[in-house]
Structures are given as C-alpha cells and as structure tokens.
Specification:
This protein is an alpha+beta fold and 295 residues long. Helices cover 36% and strands 27% of the residues. A 5-stranded antiparallel beta sheet has the order 14-13-12-15-16. A 4-stranded parallel beta sheet has the order 2-1-6-7, sandwiched between helices. Helix 2 links the parallel strand 6 and strand 7. The protein is globular and about 65 Å long.
C-alpha cells in the first residue's frame, strides 16, 4: 500500500466516480468521495471542509466531476478548489485548467489561438447576425456555453422561412444570450474520443450514432466502438490537449472530407468510452498517474 490520502471529487454512486475511488483505494487503502454540494470554504482561515474532512490536509484531490450538469455554478465550485491548492494539496487537474474547459467559448478560443482545426464557428448576441450565420452555413448547431452530451443544442437550417429561423434563434437566445453557432458538419455517423493521461496518448474510441440521430452521444442512443487513429490525427489531438495541461482528458475529434477537426477538449474525460470502446481501464491509469506525481 502507498501511504497517501487522496480524495475524489465527483458524483457519489456514479460509475466513473466510484471506479476512480476504487482504483485509488486499491493502491492506498484510503477512500473519500466528495460531492461539491457538501463543501464549505472558510476564506478567513483558508480551510475547505467536506463532511468533517479538511481537503487542504490531504495529499491530493482528483476531480472526476464537478457537477452533474455544467453551468456558471461549476466555475464557483472550482474556485473553492483553488483554496485547496493554496493550502498545499495537489489538485488533479489544476482548477484553473479545468475552468478554461467548462466554458465552451473559453475552450474554443484557446484551441483557435493554438491553431487547432475546428468547425467554422460564429459567436454573437445579435439575432440578425445569427440568422446570417445560419444562411451562410446552410445548417447550424447552436450550442449552450455550458453543456455536455449535446444537451440544449439546437439545429437550425436555412431551408425554411426567415420568420421560422428568427423564431428558433430567439427561443435559443432566451436561455443563451451569447450564442455559439457552429456549422453542422456532414459526418460519417461517428466521431472519436482520444484518451490522454498526463499528456500521453493511450488510444481512441468511436462514438457511433444511433440511426439518423444528428449527434453521436450516448445520451442520444449512440454506442462505443474501437478505432485506430492515423498518426496525424493523434498528433493534432495531442497538440490540442497540450494547450490545457490536463492530467486526464479526452479530445473529441471528427474526420471530415476537409481533414480531421477538433470539437473540444474535455474538462474531465470519459472513463466509460475508454472501457467499453477499447478496453482501457482509465481509472487505474489515472490513479497510477496521480500516485507517480505525488511520489
């Protein structure tokens, strides 16, 4: 046994959270799963407590999931982990690095500035400018800035009357004032997740769409399958994830007629895709990485 006390931030009872806690417990004999809803920070003393446990007194904290669904509140929860880091506890991945990924726009701007190929994207608060984007793209995916598994995404096509386009855009804008608009790509019924631990590539899986679903997420009935990536695709994904310096992540990639593109780098990465798609025990790999970093 390795004498380290490492907590897992996640959703108690959820498979990926418990799998990571299991992997760490098997190697250290210590188990602590923390729901951020149970955390209290005392800024006067700099302590961050969770059910009687001082997170700043631990050897490490691994963030598997900060909340069930992304929202600006997720950013507030990450700010509390900055206090844990200030107390001297290593957080995997660092809170500031995760912050730049939860907000879809922050992730996109970083990838664009890093020269990573992405789908054509426009961002605006103006309904008329959003209409122009729909007409330019032919079909556009409107994406909330805080979402996962395609939740809240809306496809708006140009082959309908202007009034219908404007109505759809206005409805989306009511919940998403800053509209993130991406050209809907003609994909081959699948996209890819490339797995990285400590910046090292460990394999790729495909998410295969169910029937005529426009997205490939498991939430929409997709399934995982193994996939062998060409070296240039792996290198593109490696460059993308290196911009964020994550301890564990997956890079979402699509293969298009114009070449491979990156959709996003994940704030937390998927254990299930790695396991079901390519038989990789990502929880064990991540636990080994964490313990190596703390040794």
């Amino acid at each position: 046994m390795i004498n380290k006390k490492i907590a897992v931030i996640g959703i108690p009872g959820k498979w990926s959270t418990e799998a990571l806690a299991d992997a760490l417990e098997a190697k250290t004999g210590f188990r602590l799963v923390v729901d951020m809803a149970d955390v209290t920070a005392d800024l006067a003393t700099g302590t961050v407590m969770a059910n009687g446990n001082d997170l700043g007194s631990l050897d490490g904290v691994v963030v598997k999931k900060i909340t069930e669904t992304y929202s600006p509140n997720s950013l507030d929860r990450l700010e509390l982990l900055r206090l844990v880091e200030a107390a001297g506890t290593r957080v995997f991945s660092p809170a500031v690095n995760i912050l730049r990924l939860i907000d879809r726009l922050a992730c996109t701007v970083t990838l664009r500035n890093g020269g990573i190929p992405m789908p054509e994207t426009r961002v605006t608060e103006n309904v008329e400018h959003a209409m122009a984007a729909v007409k330019a793209f032919g079909a556009a995916v409107f994406k909330p800035l805080y979402s996962t598994k395609a939740r809240g995404m809306t496809v708006i096509t140009a082959d309908q009357p202007d009034d219908a386009i404007r109505t759809a855009i206005t409805a989306f804008r009511a919940e998403n004032p800053m509209m993130y608009i991406q050209r809907k790509l003609d994909l081959p019924g699948q996209d890819l997740g490339l797995v990285f631990v400590g910046g090292v590539y460990h394999g790729a899986y495909a998410r295969v769409a169910k029937g005529d679903a426009w997205n490939t997420t498991i939430h929409s009935g997709g399934k995982y399958a193994p996939f062998e990536c060409d070296a240039d695709v792996v290198e593109m994904a490696r460059r993308a994830q290196a911009l964020f310096d994550m301890d564990f992540t997956t890079v979402d990639v699509a293969l298009t007629n114009a070449g491979p593109i990156v959709f996003e780098v994940s704030a937390f990465g998927g254990f299930r895709g790695a396991k079901d798609g390519i038989g990789i025990d990502a929880a064990a790999l991540y636990a080994d990485h964490v313990l190596d970093a703390l040794s």
